[in-house]
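Before the break, one more example. Copy the sequence into your notebook; we will annotate it together after we see the structure.
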Amino acid sequence: MTTMIKKWVQVLILIFVPISAFSQEKDFGIWYGVNGDIPIINKLDAELSVVVRTFNNASKIDQAYIEGGANYKFNKFLSIAGSYRFTENLENNSEYHVRNKWFADAKISLPLNSLVLSARFRFEVQTRSYILSTKDLIPDYHGRLKLKALYKIPKFPVNPYLSYESFSPMYVNSDRFVDKERFTLGFEYKISKKQAIEAEYIYQRDFVSDIQIISINYFFSFFK
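Here is what the structure looks like once it is written out:
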């Protein structure tokens, strides 16, 4: 168990070290989340999340949001989802303003014995209420690709995973193919059939700054 964790950390370091050389500003934050799902009908679940994200060495709230949606699993390999996020986001005037986000997801999973590989594509639309110019009136469109490898340790409640997520702007005047990336090392702990906790270390960069994040999420399910 210890040897395996060390190998995962070494892989993460090899990924992060060359990337961090391009960073100009560095920060640290903590993200807190509570997530629930409720079965509606066979293969269809409703999902709800409440999240608070901090920055400036975890001393200030960057954003807080509530997100609701639904997830449909065709089988153990393929699922789709849609959701809406209402966010209070700290803007340049040091005040919080509403942002609205809509998501459409398609996810493919491939179980390989104890290893589970997955790929999720998310189409994201964001609108702002804090307007400084006519450009801010135009919605942001992003395509997000998330690749994840999770190892299920037999007869053990803690499962480690690695993931990478890219954010690609989907509008014609963008000068970058990818404008933000997230690299994650995490562990999921199943408290029971209905409850779980995830603890993650996230390295996020957007070519101007980078932030190291500790993310703690609690998950629960109703009627399972």
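The mean pLDDT is 90. The longest strand covers residues 25-41. Try to locate both features in your own notes.
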